[in-house]
Amino acid sequence: MTTKAFVIGHPINHSRSPLIHGTWLAEHGIDGSYEAIDVAPAELPGFFKRLRQGEFAGGNVTIPHKEAVFALCDEVDPLARKIGAVNTLVVRDGKVFGSNTDYLGFLGNLDAAMPGWSDGPDDAMVIGAGGAARAVLVALQRRNGGKVHILNRTLANAQALVEEIEGPFEAHGFEAFAELAPRTGIVINTTSIGMHGSRFDWLDFSLLPKQTLVTDIVYVPLQTPLLAEAAAHGFRTVDGLGMLLHQAVPGFEAWFGVRPAVTPQLRARIEATLGH
Question: pLDDT tens for residues 137-155?
Answer without folding.
Answer: 999 998 866 899 999 999 9
